[in-house]
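Quick start: what a row looks like.
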Amino acid sequence: MNLDNTTLTLERNDPNINSGLYIILTTDEDDSRPVYIAGNFNDWRTQDKDFMMEKIGNNLYHFKFSHDFDYPELLLYKFTKGDWSEVEIDRNGNRTENRSTTAHTGIVNEHVARWRKNWLPFKQSFLPQVQLISDEFKIPQLNKTRKIWALLPHDYDSSSESYPVLYLQDAQNLFNEKAEFGNWEIDKKLAVMSEYKIGKIIVIAIEHAEEDRIIEYNVGKTVLGKGQGKKYIRFVTDTLKPYVDSNFRTKKEREFTGIGGSSMGGLVSIFSGLRNPEVYGKLMIFSPSLWVIPDLKIKPKKTNAADTKIYLYAGGDESKTMIEHIKKFQNDLLASEFVNDDSKINLSINRQGKHSETYWSDEFPKAIEWLFFQSK
């Protein structure tokens, strides 16, 4: 591959080449996924279509910043295949430092040796601290007890920072290597995100009720019968959150508080957000069991919830109605004005996605990044 020839071609094709900055990228590994530039000019968004590079040859890409681009004093950037799970790494699998330039015109030649694949490899030193809050945390609303975990940033003990909090259902399947159907590997995903200085968040993982899981996550009267979901939501909101806020360094406000889950755990998280918009400003909803309540009515409370951010995910190979249901739910949210700006809803659909932990695992870091660490 001859970069001199590429430069000459660009100069011939663009007589105003010095009116902007060209980035030319060569790679050692090529595949069909597009390449994006993420940096301090776009809040490090890793799948920003405005900064997708054009493929101009085998293992060869380019991107031009326009002549009127609003450059930071020092342009910082990295290359990704769409998110931090697929970011550039060096030939030994190590994190690369931010690239930088002060140039506003001309050509900058760059090279990527390898790309991360499915968040691997990760470094043990960045794994979150996994702390068992209690084997038998009391749930007075249900007259039960439950095992609850806290995943804290790796440097929690040496830091004085306060952190956003995400409450997640089905802890048995979030980071347990022995889980029957696999797990989300949220510990490994958070480790890689921490290495890139994003994703520093407290995750509160609540184990489900085993044989009573469906009853406990079922809200009101549905096709499954009468559930205990309202009491469960009151437990997380009125009992568990105050405990967490009192015992950990949390950012308590709604804009830093999220709740989420998958399947029935996603459904109970939907209701948690709809019923308590003053508490939860972020919802992470994966493959929700919306079929359980086909006539779901969204009645916004008077509390201003317009800035609630909702990340919706569905797989095309889950059921015949999954994508239909989640698109309808998105439209109903907007029509009801529970969220009055479609930029506050991120709908992610994987047409090959199945109803399994593997696919929720892939989606987890993307959701974390968008919900908590992107301003747009």
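That is the whole record. The chain has seven helices and 19 strands. The CA atoms of residues 89 and 96 lie 5 Å apart.
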